[in-house]
Amino acid sequence: MAGEEGWLTFFEKSGGLETPRYAETMAYFERLDQASAFARLESFGRSPEGRSLPLFIISADKAFTPEKAHRTGKPVILIQSAIHSGECEGKDAAMLLARDLLIDKKHPELFEKLIFLIIPIFNVDGHERFSPYNRINQNGPREMGWRVTSTRLNLNRDFMKADAPEMRQWLQMYHRWLPHLFYDCHTTDGMDYQYLLTFNIDEHDQFGGAVSRWAREIFLPGVRNACRTRGLLIGPYADLLEEDHPEKGFAIGVWRPMLSNAYATVCNRAGFLIETHSLKPYAVRVQTTLDFILIGLREIVKKPEALLKAVAEEDQRVSAWGRGPADTLKIPLQFNTRFDAGEKALFLGFRSEMKAGVVSGDTYPAYSTEKEEIPTVYYNEAEPAVQVAPLLGYLIPQGWQAIVEVLRAHGIKMQRLIQPCTGDFEGYRFREVRFRPRSYEGRSLPSYQVVPVTEKRVFPAGTIFVPMGNPRGKLIIQLLEPEAPDALVAWGLMNTIFEDREYFESYVMEPLAEKMMAGDKALAERFASKVQSDSAFAANPRARLAFFYQNSPWYDQDKDLYPIWRMTRDIPLTLGEL
After folding, report:
1. Tens digit of pLDDT for each residue in 28-70?
2. Which residues are within 8 A (CB) of 94 and not within 5 positions of it... i.e. 6 or more apart?
3. Are 88 and 186 in contact (CB under 8 A)?
């Protein structure tokens, strides 16, 4: 067995109090690789500080490539830890699972029926900022890694915009393998409660289609029943409607694809977020993570064909977008959680009292060990808030190479016009553009309203064409439709379109404005009305002149114009490889 053969992990040797550093973790997986013909340790890239990004593969068929793995007809399961490197129990749980499968020969039905991809540490550079002071709210281990990367990026906000080099390499790995289910292991803090673990997997048909139905109707009922049987207290990962008041209810709804589990959903796969609670002892958190993963895996192998069928069905559904009449389908971009339809439940918490803070001057909750059951409501039903009609593809001017590179990282197939193209295309103009007062994830984020337009456009040879009609359609739309919550333009990757690039001098604009006002009665009336109704405008000489500049042929017609255009009509294109 493991102990007799020297296969105890660093975590076990410490009595469940410590977690290994990067080098010790890698050494353990290297030993497993050497000891078993059914395992292979690979690298899917290197971090900015030069560390290997590890991928550990377990396959009873020795199917160590995506092509061989998918030919087996078995579900491929990705288990990832330490995307936030201080949240490291998934790493130690994965080491125990790999040892149990390969050395101790436990769980033979899982070993035979599934293929495993294990990323023990994703944020490898952040992991090595090792300290006992990295997680003030967390009960162990004695030392742990840091939340963000060496350049202070949060990888679990980066799945769409892909700023981090680590993420771009991860995306390339993910789209080569396209695992059927993706476990992402985390630790949460916030209010204290009895649950050892909370989770999220999408259950909304309009977002995840067949895969979300599989999760809701087949997977989760079995997982919940197994947890009840084992006495494993789990609950949904949800947001309080009112801080420190669970009785007011919780919102779940549809999550943004910048997050790992929802990113899997827009790729027509199942994404399963695991969040143990930071106040539980570390050893309990590691064992809970392992137990919960095993429970889910056992549910999958009961009906592996159900997961495979759901993924194939969703790939097929999304591939059909753009092939039928646009008026028969609307594709949701954003969702609203419905607060008129909730599920009543008992929240398993701990009794608390609000105490006066001498330093803050405010109150704070002090939790006891006394258990309490609080009647509450979980709101998980959602309805589309913004929808878009399907299309045949997008046209991107070739100058926007930064956008093309992000799409390439996502594994999206693109082509290039080798002959010019002219036709009517749908696009967007922006208005009411504002920026957040502070950056978020290193980016200045715009907010805006969009105005759909249809214009005759000429696209020269070299323009990039992003075709729909393939399984990545949902991902493409979420990246390129500006009203999608994590569209690239919403993440600030195109902020130059909102900036003025030419300017007027008053000695030129004043006489021109007078001439325009004298020659265009309607324009003069609009100006007079704005002066009368808008005192700030009336008192701003530059704004008054800008009114006429913006109505002149000298004004930049491409300002606030989305550079990416929608192709909704079957216009002949002459295309070549990109």
Report:
1. 999 999 999 999 999 999 999 999 999 999 999 999 999 999 9
2. 56, 79, 81, 118, 120, 185
3. no
Residue pointed to by tokens 């149990």: 100
Cβ atoms within 10 Å of 184's Cβ, excluding its own: 25
In Å, what is the CA distance from 102 to each residue of 136, 181, 268?
A: 36, 21, 30
Distance CA 152, CA 84 (A): 11
Torsion over CA: 20, 26, 31, 32 (sign)? positive
**Model confidence pLDDT, tens digit, residues 342-356:** 999 999 999 999 999
Length of the chain counted residue by residue: 578
Q: Among 573, 390, 391, which residue's Cα sits nearest to residue 464? A: 573
Euclidean distance between CA atoms 569 and 562, whole angstroms? 19
**Could you give the count of Cα atoms lying within 13 Å of 185 in the half-sphere of its Cβ?**
30
Provide the CA 558 distance to its chain's centre, in angstroms: 31
Strands (E), 268-420: 270-277, 331-337, 343-356, 363-379, 382-388, 393-396, 415-417
Residue 510 and residue 298 in contact, taking contact as beta carbons nearer than 8 Å: no
Structure tokens at 545: 């002149």
CA angle 255, 257, 258 (to 5 degrees): 110
Beta strands in 278-362 (DSSP E): 331-337, 343-356
Residues 24 and 126: their CA atoms lie apart, in Å, by: 16
**Cα–Cα separations (whole angstroms), residue 505 to 509, 519, 539:** 6, 21, 18
Beta-ladder partners of 55: 42
